[in-house]
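ZP: hey, is the flavin mononucleotide complex queued? I don't see it on the tracker
AM: it wasn't, my bad. submitting now with these inputs:
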Amino acid sequence: MKALQVEGATPALRILRVDASGRVAGSSTRQLTAQVVDAIAAAAGPVSVTRRDVSRGVRLVDEAWIDAYFTPDGERSDAQRSELSQSDAMIGELQAADVVVIGVPVYNFGVPAALKAWVDMVARSGVTFRYTENGPVGLLEGKKVYLVVASGGVGIDDPIDFATPWLRHVLGFLGMTEVEVIGADRQNIVGETAVDNARSQVASLDFSRVTRRAAA
Ligand SMILES: Cc1cc2nc3c(=O)[nH]c(=O)nc-3n(C[C@H](O)[C@H](O)[C@H](O)COP(=O)(O)O)c2cc1C
């Protein structure tokens, strides 16, 4: 069904904000993802924001989930549909989004387990990517992604940073190739400057231009 739209009204830009830090109070990535969302709203007019806090729990891939995943859609039992319900909900949030803002604390040189689990829930063959005779094709195209990456000592894109390059790759695999990285890295080395620099980076980004393109 086509959504009704009041003539002349600006449709809200749909932002999905994903947070992954195990910390709530004092989390630099949460502060920065909030700043990015505020900056987009200030530049792009009405926004609707969906929040997904993966630190609160994401289903892990197990035998029942894989069994449900590989059962054709029309043949799934109620129990199998239930196994996939969180995955379906997370995919729906991504499909609906024009812009995706993800907070990425580096944990043990990679992404937090909860964020990896979220990727496992949203990467589904035939739904968010598919294989063709020319190779895989991502089905989540036309979205702008902002990654807020924070770390204690690892520099973004250093050889030991397995978080940022992996996320760029897997998001691109799903069709999200327009990825901007906002860095609050090396906080234990450079101190408060790390977050200050990230704040300045956010303030310098032209959100009105990118969001119009993402919303088009
Ligand atoms: C469990 C855990 C593991 C961490 N592992 C790393 C790491 O491997 N490399 C690194 O540079 N920082 C590491 N850190 C530091 C965090 O990346 C850093 O504190 C970051 O600011 C966390 O994001 P937040 O401020 O949103 O909580 C780790 C922190 C925690 C809590």
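AM: back. The chain has a mean pLDDT of 94.
ZP: great, adding it to the tracker
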